[in-house]
Amino acid sequence: MPDYYDKFPPLAQWKKDSFVGTALFPRRADDIALIAIDTLLEYFPKGETKGALPLYVAAEIFFTSMWWLNNFKSQPKKMDGRRRPAILQLNVCAANQVARLLRCPLGQVASKLKAIYGTKMTQFGADKDREFKVHYLTLSERERFRIIFIDGKGWWRTSTKSGAPLELFDTTDMKTEGRPGLIFVMTVSGGFFVSQLCNDSNMVKFHSCFMGGAPILGAGTVSALRGQIIRIKNDSGHYRPQDPTQVWVLQKLKFNGVDISKVLVEREPKFKGGPQFPSMFGDKYSRAMASGQLDHPQGFGLPKVA
Predict the structure, then answer these.
(1) Is residue 132 packed enough to be buried (19+ CB in 10 Å), middle (13-18) or exposed (0-12)?
(2) pLDDT tier for residue 124 given thresholds of 50, 70 and 90
(3) What confidence score (pLDDT) does residue 287 get?
(4) What's the pTM value of the predicted model, to 2 decimals?
(5) Count of H helices and E strands in the chain?
(6) Which of 1, 62, 89, 190 shows the smallest number of beta carbons within 10 Å?
(7) Distance, CA of 272 to CA of 206 (rounded, Å)
(8) Residues whose CB falls within 8 Å of the CB of residue 14, separated by 6 or more in sequence, listed in order
(9) Phi and psi for 21 in degrees, rounded to 5?
(10) At what angle do helices 84-102 and 52-71 cross, to 10 degrees?
(11) If DSSP codes are grouped into helix, strand and coil, which group holds residue 102?
């Protein structure tokens, strides 16, 4: 394996560099994020140096490899830590590729990508936050509401006491302002946070409270049963996330091992945008996400980049 990737390696070279163990174990197919990286490298547009598609794919490689590096210890049976050196090198390469495409310093890559690909808070949301003098959670406060995924199941702490044990994430009989389940926010890097609304004891009044009004990947309401995510809906008035965000949220859930075939995806009709979900993908969403395309040449949810 080379000490440094100055550009994305060909897929065959990448598979060789990231190979560990034997031909039988560990199975590459068990590592969903690794397979996504393989697909992204396959689709990276060779020879293109500007435009939405090369930036989008490079950004996805950056975020997916970063997600792997942050989560491989939680899924040791599926994500072999011996692949870390190769994935770390690829992550650095992706960051450099994005910096070149955006013509920005390396240290600004993460914030630039959040601004481009994240769903920004609406003016309505900003006005509401000012009206209610909303408290934005600090980093330590936010951790109380994080869902931790282990082998595809969500776990959370239902108590605020220090050292409280993890319990399976379950929203049975829970409602938020008459809606089933709890509100959720997924960050651009894949963090998943949930809460009820308007509860003074937990300080979360709106979706914006989790990330301080910053851009997010997706938001709405979520339901779970014994750790399995069973429903998501993009019903956040603060962010008004459009249909493509549903797919991005599913992609990150799948990286966490969640069985997305059991997830009911509901749409908020007020926030339509892009191809309609759920009929647009079926089981082919990961490949379509990787290539940035669906059944039309306009692509799917790609921001305009000069």
Answers:
(1) exposed
(2) very high
(3) 44
(4) 0.79
(5) 10, 10
(6) 1
(7) 21
(8) 8, 37, 38, 41, 86, 90
(9) 75, -135
(10) 150
(11) helix
